[in-house]
Amino acid sequence: MATRHESYYSEEEQQSDQLKHSLQVASSTRKRKFKTSDEDAASVEVSAIDLALGKAALALDTHLESPWECKLRREAMLLELESRGQKRAAFGNEWEKLEKEFIRTTRILRLKMDRKALRRKAEEKMKEEKELRELCAARAPMFWIPLRAHGVWERMNVTLSCTVRGCPSPHVQWYKNGVPINLRFAEPGKYRIQNHFGILSLEICRCSLDDSADYSVVISNKYGQATSFANVLVRSYYGLLTGLDSEALAIGLSGREADFVSVLQPVFSRETEPFTLNCTFSSDLLEHQRHISWFRDGVLLKETDRRKMKALDREASLSVSSAFKDDEGFYTICIPTVSGYKKQSAYVFVRDAAAAVVGAPGAPLCVKCRDVNKDSLLVSWTPPSDDRGSPIFGYYIERHDVETDEWVPCNEHPVKICRFPVSRLVEGKTYQFRVKSVNQAGISHPSKPSQPVTMKDPAEASRTTVIPYDGFKQIVISKDDLEGDVKIPLPPTNVHAAEVSEDYVVISWNEPDPRGREPLSYYVEKSIAGSDSWQRVNLDAAVDSPRCAIFDLMKGTSYCFRVQSVNKYGISAPSLPSEPISPVDTLVPPPPPEHVVAYRDTKTSAVVEWDKLKDDQELLGYYVYCRESGATEWQTVNNKPVTDNRFTVPGLQTGKEYVFCVRPVNEAGLGTQSPESEPLVINEAIYCPSAPYDFALLNCGKNDMVIGWKAPKFTAGKEILGYFLDRHDSSETEWHSVNFKPILQRLCKVSNLSEGHFYQFQARALNVAGLGKMSEPSDLFKCEEWTMPQPGPPYDVRFSEVRDSTLMLQWEPPLYTGASPIKGYFIESSEEGSDEWKTLNKQPTATTHMRVSALEKGKSYVFRVKAVNAAGTGAPSVPSDPVIAETKPGTNEIEVGVDEEGFIYLAFENPEPLDDPQFIWSKDYEGPPDADRTEIQNDGNKTKLLLTKPSLEDLGTYSVEVPNTDGVSASHTLTEEELRDLLKRSHEIRNPLIQLISGWNIDVLEKGDVRLWLQVEKLSPAAELLLTLNETELSDTPTRKITFDREKGLIEIMIQDFSEKDRGTYTADVKDGKAKNQFSLSLDGDKFNQILKEAERKRKAWEKKQGPHFVEDLQWTVTEECHVLLKCKVANTRNETTFKWFLDRQSLPKGQYDAETGDGTLLMKKFTEENKGFYKTVVSDIRGEDTSELDLNKDVFEEILKELSRAGALSASPLKLQSTAEGFKIFSIVKYFTDYMKPSWYHKDRKLASTDRLKSGTTMNQVWLQILNPTEGDRGLYTLELFDGKQTHKRTLDLSGKVFDDAMAEYQRLKEASIAEKNRAKVVQGLPDVATIMEDKTLCLTCHIGGDPVPEVTWLKNDREVVFKDRYKLEVKGMVVTMTIEKVCGDDSGRYGIFVKNKYGSETGQVTLSVFKHGEEPAELRRTSVDRYSSPTEA
C-alpha cells in the first residue's frame, strides 16, 4: 500500500514539473507575442508570426481545457477506488487528501485566468491591427487613369471615363464648363453617370454641337481633393451619303419628320384611378423617330403591368391603369430627330383617394427598403401631404411574402417617424412592404407596396474573391477557407447605436474576425448604464445579422449593450459594452422655409419659389399648398414632395387671386407651414413674343416685293407694337435691315431689289417686354415682275368663333388682282396632315368671309383661299394654322338686352381675363359699326356695344374679337323680330308702368264683410293713390276702411254690411314718380248678386256660431270592421247643452255624445233595411239651437251598401280548402257580405254554375263553393270574384298537384269515418243512471240498440259478463234487448252495463242498481255515473 502511495506522489511531482515547464513556455510565448504600449508606438509592422500566435492563443481555450478536465476526472476516480479498497491508517491521510484537492482547484483556477488573459490580449491586438490597416490604407484621392479628350460626330454617344483611388471612397461630382451636372435638371436621358469599383464614367447621349465643352470631374474625401479635365469636340459630318451631302440629307429628312401637334397638358388623377398622357404628331413617324422615350423626373420609364406605352400611327400615349401617388411627377416624351430630339413635358398630379373613414389621412408613399440583411431590414417612407384636419400620430407597417397574398402587420403600436426596422425575416425569402397612416379619425388606405426585396447577407460578396484567368475561367476563393477552423467564436466588436429614436434603438456591431466557417448568430444583452445587471434582449431566438432593433426602452434612461456570438460549438464571451445610449428623438420635423414668393407664369398657372433650408435634416422635399384669397381651407398642390425650391402650380382660374405656402417634410413628419406669399392674381406673365412665321410673297415688281407674314403664336397677352424685317440676297452672305422703325401691319413693301435675284426674309416682333426671337428664314423668293392674268394669293387667312361644328373664316383680298377685277373666292379645307384639299363652296363667294359648317367635332383642319377673276383661279393663299373643331370650355357668347336707362346693348365678357384687354367689334365682318349709331363701353374684361339710335338699319351680324388670347371671339345676328322685342322693352323702361303683381281680388270674410284688394310692385313712400266708385272718390268711413301699404304695394278696401249701395265700378289710380297705372274692378250683375248672397250667408252663419253649433255635419262612414258609423261634431257647448239623436222623428237612445270632445256617434254593427230612415241630431241650450240631418234612404242607402261591399270584398281572405265527408269545400272569409258583392266562381277560367255536384253560397261571413264527390276532373285553378260596386277583386286557389292529392286523401278518410260512424254499434235508448228496487221483486232492464250489421250484445255486472241462468234471463226482440232479474236480493246490487259491438265499433250503456230491504227507506245513491256512455272504440 505504501508503495502505491509513493508511486502516486512521484507521478504528481512529475506532472507538476511538466505543468511548470508548460507555464514557463506559455509565459515566454506571451512575452514574445504581446508588446508594451511603448513597443507598439515604436513599431507599426505586424508580422505573420504574431498573427498566427494570436490565433493560437485564442484557440488555447479549446486545446487546454478538455485534456486537463479529463485528467482530473481520472485522478479523482483512482483516488475514489483506492479509498474504497483500503482503510485509513492515520490522521495524516485526511490532510493528504485535502492537500490534493487544494492543488487541483488551484490548477483549474489558474488555467481559467490564463485563458481570459490570453483572450483579452488577443482582442486588443486584433483591434490595433485593424486600426493600423485602416490608417495605412488612408490616403487622399488621386487619378490612377485620368480623363482624356474626345472628338465625336453629331448624334453619336461619347463616354468619358477615368480610374480613381482613395480611402475612404471619394465623393464624385461632374462639371460642364464649370457648372455642376444635375441629372434632374438636365435633358431627360442626356447623361448617364456610373461609379463601379473606382471606375468613373460619364456618357453623353446623342451629342449635339451644344455638347462641345470642357468637362471635369472632382473627387474628394477628408484627406484631400483631385480634379481631372477633358475636352469634348462635337463636329458636323459633311461626307457624301448616297450622292447627297449630309446637310442636304438632313434638310430633306427634317422636312418630312413628324412634329408635335398637340401640347401635353397637366393631368389631375386620383389614387386607384387610371390616367393617360397623349400627344399627336403632324405625320407618321420616320424610321429613326420610332424609338420614343418617356421619362419621369428625368428617369427613363419602362413598361410594367400597370404602365403601358403605345406609339401607333400619329399618336403616342403612356397609360397607367391604377395610379399611386408615387406616379406623380414631371413626365417628358422625347422623339429623335436628325438634329437631336424634340420633347414635351407635363406634370401629373395624383390626389389621395377618398378616405374609407371620414377624416382619415392620406396614404404614405415612396416606401423603400434599406440596410437589407439576412433576417432584418429598415423600411422608410414619405409622409402624406394631407392629414385631413387631424394630425398624423403614427404609422402601421405590413409585409407579405411574395409567395402568398396575406399581409401581416409588423408593429402592434403606431410608430411616430417614417422609418421602422423589421426583424425576424427568413433568409432567402422575398418580401414586399406597405404602410398605413393613422390619425384620430381612422386609418388611411395602404400605400403602394415597395419593390420586392430578397433577404441575404450583404457581406457575403466581400468574403469571396473571384480571380479570372484563361479567358472565361475563374477561381473563387472564400475567406472562410483561409481562416482555418474556429470552434468557440470570438466576441463581436464595435458595438454601437446605428440608429436612435424615441420608439427604438438599432444596435450594430462588427462580426468577429476571424469569423470561422460555421454560421454565426448573436445574442444581445442590455443593462442600465452604471449597473452590472445584464438582461438578454432576444430571449426567444438569436439574430442572424450584425444588427438588432430593440424596442420598449424607457425614455430618458441610458442603456449599455453587449453582444455574444454563437455557433454550433458554443457561445463566445460577451463583447465590450457599448457607450451609454438613451432613446431620444434624434430626428425632428424641419423648420418652415422663408421668403415664399409667387409670380405669374401662364393664364392658368403660377410659379412659387422659396429659400432652401440650410440644415436639411434629412429633408425629403417640400409640399406646396394654395387657396383663394379669403378662403380658409388650404388645397394640396403636389402629393409627392418636390426636392427643388421652385414649383409651377397649374390648374388655377384666370383672374382669381391666390396665396401660397410651403411645408418641408422629412422622416419625422411634416414641418411647420411657411408664411403665406403675397396674393397673386393669375394671368399671363409678360414675355417677349415668339417669332413670326409663314412668310409669303403677295406682290412683286421689277425692283420691289410685298412680303406678308403671320403674327407670333405667343404674345403673352400683350399687343404687338410692330415688326422689324430683315432681307438676304442669296448671292450675298450678310443680312440687311429693311426698316428701322416698327412696322405696325404684317405687310411690308421692300424696294431697291435687284431683278432676277433670290431673296429671303426674316422678322421679329416687338411688345412692351421687348423684341422677340428672330424668325426662321423664309423660302427663297425671286424678284420678278408679276404679269399673269390670274389674281395673286389672298393673305391673312384666319378663323374665329370656333365651335363644335362651325367657325368663321376671314381673309384679306389679293394685292395683285390680275388682268380683271376679283369676282369671288373659293375656300378649300383639308384635315391636318393630309395632302387632299376639298372645295367647300361650289360658287365663288363675293365677300372676304364665310361661315364654315358641317365640321366634325374634335378633328383638326387647315384652310386656304383662292381668288377668282375673269382669267381664272389664282394661286392659293398660305394655309391657315391648324384648328380643332370644338367649343372650348368656358366659351362665352354675346348677350343682348336692354339696360336700366332703356338702351339696347350687346355685351360680351372675356373668359380669359387680361390685365388690359382689347375688344374689336365689327358689323357684318366688314369693319367697325357706325360710330354715329353705336357706342362702345369697355370695363376691364367686359365690353358693351350700345345702339344709340336703334332702327332697322342696325339689323345684321355683330362680332367681337379679343386679340392676344387663344381665339376668344363671338358673334350675334340681330333679327327684325328680336329688335322689335328689344324696342318694346326699351319703351317700357323709358315709359315705366307700375307692375301689377295680383289684380283685383274679392274675399268674403267669415263675418260677412267683403274685402276688395290688389297688389302691385314695391312703391316709394311718395307714391299716391286715388280710389273711385262710379267716378266718385272714396274715403274712409265707419263701414268702409281703405288701406294703402306702399312697402308691400297692397291696396285694400274693407266693406261692412255689403249692400246695393256698393254696386258699381271701382278704380284705383296709382302714381309713383314717373311710373303710374290704373286698375279697375266692375261689381255688377250676377257677379255682384253672387257676392251679396255669399256675404249674407256667412253673416248668418257667424251669428249662428255664437251658440252651440255643428262644426262637422252628420255624415256616415264604413269602418274597417264593416260597421256603419254616423258621426258629427259640435262646438261652443256648455254644461247645460243637450244633444239628441232622432230617426224618423223618433228619439234614438243608442246614439252617443261625448261632451268633452263634442263628438256625436251612432254605430250600426249590422247594417240592414231596418237602418233606413231620416236621421237628425239636435244640439241646444239657452243660447240657441242647431240641427244636422242625414237621409239614409234610396241613393244614400245604396251607396252605403256599395261601400260595405267594397270593404267586404277588400277584407276577403285568400281561398282556403277544407275536405269533408261529402267532398271539398273552398271558401273565403269576409267581414261583411251583401248581395252587391255578386260572388262568382271560376274553374280554369270557366264560370261555374250550381249543379247537383257543385253548390255555392254564403253562410255568415263565408263565401263558399261545395264540390261533392270530387274526381280527377276537379283539378285546376279556382277563382272567386267579388264586386265592390266599381271593380272586381279576385281570390284564387290552385287545386292541383300535392294540394289536390292531400285533399282527396283527407276526403276519402273522412268519408270512411262517416260511414263507420253511421253503421257502428250503439245504444240508441239507454238505461237509467240509477235504479232502486225492493228485495224479492223482479227487475227488467230494457234498452234499444242500433248498428249495421246487427251488433253482438253482452251484459256486464261490475265489469264482469253476466251468465244468464236461474234468476237472470235475456230477451232480444229485433233491436230491443231486455235483461230480467227475478227475486232480486242484496247481492244483486251493483253497476250493470250493456256492451254492443259490430265491425264498425262498440258502445256501452250503464246503470247502477240499488236493492233495499222490506220496510227500509231507500238510501240515497252516493255514486253516480259521470258519463252515461263511454267513448266508442274501433271494432
State the main characteristics.
mainly beta, 5-stranded mixed sheet, disordered N terminus
- Which radius of gyration do the C-alpha atoms yield? 59 Å
By DSSP, the count of extended strands is: 99
Mean pLDDT: 84
**Any idea what the shape is?**
flat
Q: Bin the helical content.
A: 10-25%
Number of helices: 11
End-to-end separation: 119 Å
Bin the strand percentage: 35-45%
Largest sheet: 5 strands, mixed
Strand order across the largest sheet: 2-9-8-4-5
Instruction: List the uncertain runs.
Output: 1-12, 18-66, 238-253, 1420-1435
Q: Based on helices, strands and strand pairing, what is the structural class?
A: mainly beta
What is this structure, in a nutshell?
With 1435 residues, the chain is mostly beta strands.
